[in-house]
Design a protein that fits this description.
The chain is mostly helical. Helices cover 80% and strands 0% of the residues. It has a single domain, classed as Up-down Bundle (Growth Hormone, Chain: A), CATH 1.20.1250.20.
Length: 447
């Protein structure tokens, strides 16, 4: 039987938490600010020759290209992360994301370069998608593998806090920028959030560069139990877990991107609510979720990951209709309350618990690949096209919201069924942080 390798020291774990939080914040800040610009400015900057609806739709299509690239990035990073290590893969994903984001801030618009600017925008958005596909799985796997078993739910929620911090900082930055007059806002103000990411990038690289490698991966390397072709092993031995992750993540993706991107565009352009007002509302929801994520993470350590995840799905499904009814009031106070509830309770419960829940579905040799492939495929199918789906559903029914509301509820049901059917196949040993080789053989992982 293989020898045990004990988890990181408390000091190492704290540093891993800090590096994961910093890296995730930078990555998702870069990714989220594009969502804001696609909802509010992209049609005017890069597609001004089209009418408002078509321009907005094209902006959302550009937003969606990153989601098509994310599964590819997840597969590539999963292969590298399971073969050469989590740390190196995560560091490069951060650098690539930061470089692409800064370059978006330097792009010429349609006014100065015509369609060339739009083409470059799409290419850089694809690069962002590849990087984002690498980030999530690696960040979650790294922090969970460093954690004690009794605290994996809490530690897993840390990378999720980083994602929400990225959303909060990104929307907060645009909230301040939109206070500029229209002319400077469209001339240079929209570029500031993209260019400012270089500061966060430098900080993130310094912190992440000092992060220790996962003890699980180190042990797998020492014992020669890493997979040469992690993706093939994943498909061969864990298809049920892969599909479960993909479908279980559908509802959290749908509800989150509905709040962060589509509803901002809909409220501003259809309901006549101010840009700054809606950006402020999103900031309120993100701030509340940042506070509740660790709480739900700790709760998942006490009562179980699946119970907390299922509770969050049920809340999202029940809250869908009231959320849309409140939005129709155009009252920013009550809309902020609705955002705080939907993001701070329903989405937070699923988002906090899914990190450790999904990671525990796969063994070390394919964990990065399994989590990345399932999560990012879900994003490409359900999150990326969401603004376009919502736009088409509402437009095809004369502006009525009920078809889209029904769609969100059906997605919640799909996720609920997926997580009930797809039970975790593999769990880490208590207070060891790694698996035994004999268990890997039983699970079908080649030695």
């Amino acid at each position: 039987m293989a020898t045990n390798i004990y988890p990181s020291s408390a000091r190492q774990r704290r540093f891993v938490v800090a590096s994961t939080l910093a890296g995730a914040t930078v990555e998702w800040y870069d990714f989220f600010i594009f969502g804001v610009i696609s909802a509010l400015f992209l049609n005017k900057l890069f597609f001004p020759t089209f009418d408002s609806t078509t321009g907005t739709f094209l902006g959302f299509m550009t937003f969606s290209t990153a989601w098509l690239a994310r599964p590819v990035g997840g597969v590539i990073a999963g292969h590298l992360g399971d073969r050469i290590g989590r740390k190196t893969t995560l560091l490069w994903s951060l650098v690539i994301m930061g470089a692409a984001t800064v370059m978006i801030g330097l792009l010429p618009t349609y006014e100065t370069a015509g369609s060339v600017g739009a083409l470059l925008l799409v290419l850089l958005r694809i690069v962002q998608g590849l990087s984002a596909g690498a980030e999530y799985g690696g960040a979650v796997v790294t922090v969970v593998e460093h954690a004690e078993r009794s605290k994996r739910g809490f530690y897993g929620s840390v990378s999720q806090v980083g994602a929400m911090l990225g959303l909060l900082i990104g929307n907060g930055t645009f909230y301040l920028i939109t206070k500029l007059d229209h002319a400077p806002l469209m001339a240079w103000g929209w570029r500031v959030p993209f260019l400012a990411s270089v500061v966060m990038l430098i900080i993130g690289v310094v912190i992440r560069g000092r992060m220790a490698e996962s003890p699980d991966f180190v042990k797998a390397q020492m014992e020669g139990t890493t997979e040469r072709q992690p993706l093939l092993a994943l498909i061969r031995h864990y298809p049920r877990q892969l599909i479960s992750v993909m479908l279980a993540q559908a509802a959290p993706n749908t509800f989150f991107w509905m709040c962060a991107v589509f509803m901002v565009s809909y409220a501003v352009k259809t309901l006549g609510i101010s840009q700054t007002g809606m950006l402020g509302v999103v900031c309120v929801g993100a701030a509340v979720e940042i506070c509740t994520l660790p709480l739900f993470g700790m709760l998942s350590d006490c009562v179980g990951r699946r119970k907390v995840f299922i509770g969050g799905l049920i809340f999202l499904g029940i809250a869908a209709f009231p959320f849309f009814l409140i939005l129709q009031t155009k009252d920013l106070f009550w809309i902020a309350v609705a955002y705080a509830a939907l993001l701070g309770i329903g989405h937070s419960a699923t988002f906090a618990s899914q990190a450790s829940l999904f990671a525990e579905m796969f063994p070390t040799a394919v964990r990065y690949s399994g989590l990345s492939a399932g999560y990012q495929a879900s994003g490409a199918i359900f999150a990326g096209p969401l603004p376009m789906i919502a736009t088409l559903l509402i437009a095809s029914h004369g502006g009525a919201l009920w078809p889209f509301v029904t769609y969100t509820i059906l997605i919640a049901v799909v996720s609920l069924i997926a997580i009930l059917v797809g039970r975790p196949h593999y769990t880490l040993l208590p207070d060891v942080g790694v698996e035994h080789v004999s268990q890997s053989r039983q699970a079908g992982i080649s030695m």
